[in-house]
Amino acid sequence: GINCLALLMSAASDGSDYLFTGSRDGRLKRWALGVDRATCLATFESHVDWVIFMFVFSFYFLPFQLLVYF
Predict the structure, then answer these.
(1) Partners of 67 in the beta sheet?
(2) How far apart are alpha carbons 56 and 7 in whole angstroms?
(3) Statement: residue 64 has pLDDT above 60
(4) Which of 18, 30, 34, 47 is at a distance of 20 to 30 A from 9, taking alpha carbons?
(5) pLDDT 10s digits, 17-57
(6) Cβ distance 51 to 26 under 8 Å?
(7) What CA–CA distance (Å, rounded) separates 7 from 19?
């Protein structure tokens, strides 16, 4: 099951909002949020235990996000 969630809201007009989920199987997933559905864009499988906590940082002047999880 899912242990933690993080929401990254875009300040841009394109509305690219993302949801990150961390689960008991050690996976993190990044979801693109649409008006009526979410689409999984990436799965990160490098964690060896449950993902119980995460931070998502986004800086308006950098073209990437920083994801830290435990």
Answers:
(1) 56
(2) 8
(3) no
(4) 47
(5) 888 898 988 898 999 988 889 999 999 887 778 888 877 76
(6) yes
(7) 5
Q: How many CB atoms lie within 10 A of CB 28?
A: 20
pLDDT on residue 31: 92
CA-to-CA distance for 14 and 26, rounded, in angstroms? 31
Compute the distance between CA of residue 66 and CA of residue 59 in angstroms, rounded to an integer: 9
Q: What tokens were used for 47?
A: 């964690």
Nearest to 50 by CA among 21, 68, 25, 32: 25
Structure tokens belonging to residue 29: 């997933």
pLDDT score, position 45: 86
Beta bridge partners of 55: 68
Which DSSP letter does residue 57 get?
E
